[in-house]
Write a structure and sequence with these properties.
By secondary structure, this protein is α/β, with parallel strands linked by helices. The chain folds into 2 domains: about 5-220, Rossmann fold (3-Layer(aba) Sandwich), CATH 3.40.50.300; about 225-300, Alpha-Beta Plaits. About 35% of the residues lie in helices and about 25% in strands. The structure holds adenosine-5'-triphosphate. Adenosine-5'-triphosphate binds near residues 16, 40 and 43.
Length: about 300
């Protein structure tokens, strides 16, 4: 059983702060690293795997620093996001080469076991160029698993997968987690993460925004204030009625449209048609504004 500890880890590239003062602990089981594009997930994973030095702070695995500590690589497997692979070799040759790089006692047996784990035994002798995206992903996993690491880090492993491949990978991650391995994968899709990960760590704009099980993260996201733009037969009259009723935090008419922010979604959707009816206003359109994933995440950070 292995535990990764990040202590006040930051990483910047020139002026860009990719990871900003992140402290977190990742233990056995499956953890999802959730965040929008550019949040710093890849940078964080590279530092967890010992492939990139933190600018400040430390990453340790069971107390030992991962950076510049070759012995640690025997315990960590990393599946990068990049699609690029050596197309002209077979899956078998690729996994075997990795087993040899790790100087394993029996590289052939290790390569066979790793390909079996990911369900690629039948296709192992085909050239990588002929594999589907999901098969390439599985062979990449086999190369990362060949030395039987206790920690497996995967950067956006579900990207480009069809539903069947997705289920297969979810099942595999579950199994690896159940074996007591420390498995961390990144994603920008909450649904994807909550289906498999016991624990979710949320990263937004380089910062550690939230942490917990999916129920807690969902609650944080759905409890945020909701914003709407409303179009009606008389926006001024409706705005006055909403203010008087108190079902919205803010009511704004300055941009030529009626924009409201409501703290309680359920109460607001009940109140709005009633107010419109009572004041003789016809509702033409009600649309959620600013509901992008980025804004939801930004809300978590601002808390
Ligand atoms: N080698 C680099 N040089 C300069 N800036 C970089 C480099 N790598 C990443 N960045 C910047 O650091 C920030 C975080 O990038 P990172 O790739 O870690 O995020 P991410 O959450 O993995 O995003 P994505 O899902 O889009 O890959 C971004 O602003 C990115 O442009």
């Amino acid at each position: 059983m292995s535990t990764l500890v990040l202590d006040r880890v930051s990483r910047w590239y020139g002026n860009v702060v990719a990871v900003n003062d992140v402290t977190m602990t990742v233990g056995p089981g499956v953890t999802g690293l959730l965040g929008p594009n550019g949040a710093g997930k890849s940078t964080l994973i590279a530092m967890m795997g010992g492939f990139l030095a933190p600018s400040t702070g430390t990453v340790t695995l069971d107390g030992a620093p991962v950076w510049r500590h070759p012995g640690i690589y025997r315990q960590i497997g990393l599946v990068p996001e990049t699609e690029a692979m050596y197309d002209m070799v077979t899956g078998w040759q690729l996994v075997l080469a990795n087993a040899r790089l790790h100087r394993l006692a029996d590289p052939t047996a290790a390569a066979r076991a790793a390909l079996e784990t990911v369900g690629m035994t039948d296709a192992k002798d085909r050239e990588v160029a002929t594999y589907s995206k999901g098969m390439k992903q599985r062979v990449k996993m086999a190369t990362a698993l060949v030395h039987d690491p206790s920690v497996l880090l995967l950067d956006e492993p579900f990207t480009g997968m069809d539903p069947r491949q997705r289920l297969h990978l979810m099942d595999l991650l579950h199994r690896l987690g159940d074996q007591g391995r420390t498995v961390l994968f990144s994603s920008h899709i909450l649904e994807e993460v909550e289906e498999i990960a016991g624990t979710i760590e949320v990263l937004v704009a380089g910062r550690h925004a939230a942490s917990g099980d999916f129920r807690r993260i969902r609650r944080l996201m759905t409890e945020r204030p909701h914003q709407y733009t409303i179009s009606s037969s008389d926006d001024r009259r409706l705005a006055a009625a909403i203010i008087a009723d108190g079902c919205a935090d803010t009511v704004d008419l300055t941009a030529g449209t009626l924009a409201v922010q409501a703290p309680d979604l359920g109460a607001f959707v009940h109140a709005l048609p009633r107010l419109a009816r009572e004041h003789g206003v016809r509702l033409l359109e009600v649309s959620p504004a600013d509901e992008s994933l980025e804004s939801v995440f930004a809300y978590l950070v601002a808390r």
